């Protein structure tokens, strides 16, 4: 912080205090660096905590020094260059990151998708894309992504609307909503482990919740209910079809519904609370039932919010990766998705050309959704103005 | 602070309005809740029962993991966690063994906890600082093409990060990169991917601060840096807090960016270590449950203590591609 302030408030801080601060920073850094070097690769508690703090301090310290020193240098210039240089210090780093980190790489990725080979230097035309839309395994991946989007978006939104409706102003509403929302806070890797445990199969002593319930239902349901490896079943509950997702995919989809439903609930619930009482009251006086009042008045009123929820979840689902990493056995059981395929092709199979093509397809899939969302948000703002 | 004019009272009530409002400067006076009469009840006994059933259903899996992480290994492997209540035996052994557990990498699991901290704290601070500087410039500094640049930045929200991974990694490993080592690479990657949304949100906020305040400071001879650090940043705390929490949880829970840019297990966060553990110790639930729970503690604390900011950040993030 001191570096920034000394750069800006030149009138207050004297040259001497600046020198003192600079010396303190240098000496302090030297001491920290010395201890860090002494600790080396040690794994004791002190070593770990110190190294963590050191890394954090270096990162944040560099950031502060970076802006502080550049701004101080810019301030040494004469007008009109001084003001121009200050603008550059403020906005330049962000622009460099955006151009160098987003725009240029995106163009390069689009270009890479037209090449193949281990060095990605062999011209391949559109053959990567052709492979994606003709080879069976790749088509199954696309199929899975479509089902992910339909099922997660659909069920999460339905759960969200249902809970938002019935929980509204009931006793314990915040607790119920928080319980539903909790999965949103944890990582998808953590969620994957939680659900792997639910689906676990240990034929001799059943500790997986789902198999325990499943086998427990045996006397009630027709047929024989035996312990099942849910995450390895490529049939849709016994039906083999190229158009239906395997059960293994369905059981991963459930995990993402579990994560996203809370998001839908919280957002739709906030919108429902904003519906004017008079509207509902007027419908009641006209003889509408609760059900009619909800579907004819409240739901249309929050339509734009529901669209926001649907588009946001759609984008999140298109990019799902962690869950398949945690539970999908590498996507080898006809249960792959695009983002996981992008990762494995690019970074484990060294097939960057194909990985890039998958990234481009993801990008093309996201654009219309973002466009709908943007238009929707614009309409919302205009309706408000 | 009290000079900030209250934002116009909202009449509509859609969420994005709530989001936009929350991301606008406002005074405490403005916080009166809109219309809360008891007449508009849409709930019913059946509906309430369904809500609680869903809430229960949503909690059971996490609860099972939590209980299991405290049960002795023998119990975990022979009985379901639901039998815990008839035969409660509690142990901390699982946590002890997972913290000391060294997989193929030879590093204890505790190491990855600290890696996660070292990745996440700067990974949340750096993007916000860089974005705040840019947002200030885009709001209060005059230069040609300013509005066009802002529109361009907003448009970049469309780009999924998958589009950038391969070329960025090629650059980092090319020898032209000024960065050495994995963790700073992860910071920079997270900074890049967070930039469009953070600039968009912060410019909306910083740009709507009252211009009289900023101009008065200019007239008094304050430099941009003074105005930025002494005036704009303190006034922007609500917006920064929301974005910071969102970004913190995003980085803490991230797997993809860390896996691509971390460069091996030395710099891997807990998410990555857990994935490896699933691969090698997939049925050692005494390790997996405790390990997963350790990785969840920090987000759960953040979530439970800062839920309001967390929800706001999520709402704000919903415009991203």
How would you describe the overall organization of this protein?
The complex is a heterodimer of chains A (385) and B (321). With 385 residues, chain A is mostly helical. Chain A has helices at residues 2-8, 15-39, 45-75, 81-112, 127-134, 136-167, 173-181, 188-199, 209-216, 247-273, 277-285, 290-301, 303-318, 322-327, 338-348, 352-384, and strands at 115-116, 122-123. Chain A has a two-stranded antiparallel ribbon with strand order 1-2. In chain A, strand 1 (115-116) and strand 2 (122-123) form a beta hairpin. Helix content of chain B is 65%, strand content 0%. Chain B has helices spanning 15-22, 45-69, 73-78, 93-100, 109-140, 146-155, 165-172, 182-207, 211-219, 224-235, 237-253, 256-261, 270-280, 285-305, 307-317. The longest helix of chain B has 32 residues, at 109-140. Chain B is globular and about 75 Å long. The relative contact order of chain B is 0.14. Chains A and B meet through helix 1, helix 3, helix 4, helix 6 and helix 7 of A and helix 1, helix 2, helix 3, helix 5 and helix 7 of B.
Biggest interface: A-B, 142 and 133 residues
Low-confidence stretches of chain A: 1-12
What integer is the average pLDDT of chain A? Answer: 88
Structural class, judged by helices and strands of chain B? mainly alpha
- For the terminal residues of chain A, how far apart are their CA atoms? 40 Å
Task: List the total number of helices of chain B.
Answer: 15
Tally of extended strands of chain B?
0
What is the oligomeric state here? heterodimer
Profile the largest sheet of chain A: 2 strands, antiparallel
Distance between the termini of chain B: 34 Å
The fraction of residues in strands of chain B falls at under 5%
Strand content of chain A: under 5%
| H/E element order of chain A | HHHHEEHHHHHHHHHHHH
- Provide the low-confidence segments of chain B as ranges: 1-22, 26-39
């Amino acid at each position: 912080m001191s570096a920034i302030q000394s750069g800006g408030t030149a009138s207050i801080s004297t040259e001497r205090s600046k020198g003192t601060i600079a010396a303190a920073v240098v000496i302090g850094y030297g001491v920290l660096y010395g201890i860090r070097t002494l600790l080396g690769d040690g794994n004791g508690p002190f070593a770990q905590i110190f190294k963590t703090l050191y890394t954090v301090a270096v990162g944040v310290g560099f950031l502060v020094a970076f802006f502080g020193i550049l701004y101080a240098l810019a301030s040494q210039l004469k007008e009109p260059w001084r003001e121009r240089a200050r603008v550059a210090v403020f906005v330049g780093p962000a622009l460099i990151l955006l151009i160098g980190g987003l725009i240029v790489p995106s163009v390069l990725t689009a270009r890479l998708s037209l090449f193949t080979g281990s060095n990605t230097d062999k011209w391949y035309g559109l053959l990567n894309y052709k492979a994606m839309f003709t080879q069976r395994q790749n088509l199954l991946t696309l199929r899975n992504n479509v089902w992910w989007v339909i099922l997660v978006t659909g069920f999460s939104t339905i759960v969200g609307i249902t809970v938002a409706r019935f929980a509204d102003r009931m006793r314990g509403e915040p607790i119920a909503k928080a319980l539903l929302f909790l999965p949103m806070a944890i990582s998808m890797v953590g969620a994957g482990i939680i659900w792997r445990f639910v689906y676990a199969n240990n034929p001799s002593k059943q500790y997986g919740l789902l198999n325990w319930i499943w086998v427990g239902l045996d006397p009630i349901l027709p047929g024989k209910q035996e312990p099942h490896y849910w995450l390895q079943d490529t049939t849709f509950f016994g039906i083999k079809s190229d158009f239906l997702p395997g059960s293994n995919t369905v059981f991963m989809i459930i995990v993402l519904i579990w994560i996203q439903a809370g998001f839908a609930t919280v957002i739709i619930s906030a919108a429902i609370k904003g519906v004017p009482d008079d509207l509902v009251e007027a419908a009641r006086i006209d003889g509408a039932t609760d059900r009619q009042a909800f579907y004819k008045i409240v739901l249309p009123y929050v339509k734009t919010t529901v669209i926001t929820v649907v588009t946001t979840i759609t984008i999140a689902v298109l990019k799902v990766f962690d869950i398949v990493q945690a539970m999908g056995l590498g996507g080898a059981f006809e249960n792959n998705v695009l983002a996981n395929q992008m990762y494995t092709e690019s970074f484990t199979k060294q097939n960057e050309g194909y990985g890039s093509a998958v990234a481009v397809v993801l990008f093309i899939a996201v654009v219309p959704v973002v466009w709908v969302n943007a238009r929707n948000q614009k309409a919302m703002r205009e309706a408000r103005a | 602070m009290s000079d900030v004019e209250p934002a116009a009272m909202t009449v509509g009530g859609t969420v994005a309005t709530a989001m936009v409002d929350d991301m606008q400067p406002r005074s405490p006076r403005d916080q009166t809740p809109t219309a809360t009469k008891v007449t508009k009840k849409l709930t019913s006994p059946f509906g309430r029962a369904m809500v609680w059933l869903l809430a229960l259903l949503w909690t059971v899996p996490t609860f099972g993991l939590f209980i299991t992480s405290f049960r002795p290994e023998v119990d975990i492997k022979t009985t379901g966690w639901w039998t815990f209540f008839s035969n409660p035996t509690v142990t901390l052994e699982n946590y002890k063994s997972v913290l000391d557990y060294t997989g193929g990498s030879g590093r204890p699991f505790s190491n990855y906890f600290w890696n996660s901290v070292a990745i996440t704290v700067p990974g949340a601070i750096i993007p916000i600082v860089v974005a705040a500087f840019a947002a200030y410039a885009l709001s209060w500094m005059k230069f040609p093409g300013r509005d066009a640049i802002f529109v361009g930045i907003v448009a970049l929200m469309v780009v999924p990060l998958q589009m950038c991974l391969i070329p960025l990694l090629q650059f980092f490993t090319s020898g032209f990169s000024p960065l050495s080592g994995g963790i700073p690479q992860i910071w920079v990657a997270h900074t890049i991917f967070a930039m469009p949304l953070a600039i968009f949100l912060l410019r909306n906020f910083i740009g709507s601060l009252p211009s009289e305040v900023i101009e008065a400071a200019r007239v008094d001879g304050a430099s941009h840096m003074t105005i930025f650090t002494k005036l704009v940043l303190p006034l922007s705390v609500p917006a920064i807090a929301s974005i910071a929490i969102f970004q913190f949880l995003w980085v803490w829970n991230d797997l993809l960016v860390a896996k691509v840019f971390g460069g091996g297990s030395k710099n891997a966060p807990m998410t990555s270590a857990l994935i490896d553990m699933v691969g090698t110790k997939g049925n050692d639930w005494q390790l997996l449950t405790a390990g997963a729970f350790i990785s969840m503690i920090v987000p759960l604390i953040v979530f439970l203590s800062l839920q309001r900011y967390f929800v706001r950040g999520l709402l704000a993030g919903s415009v991203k591609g």
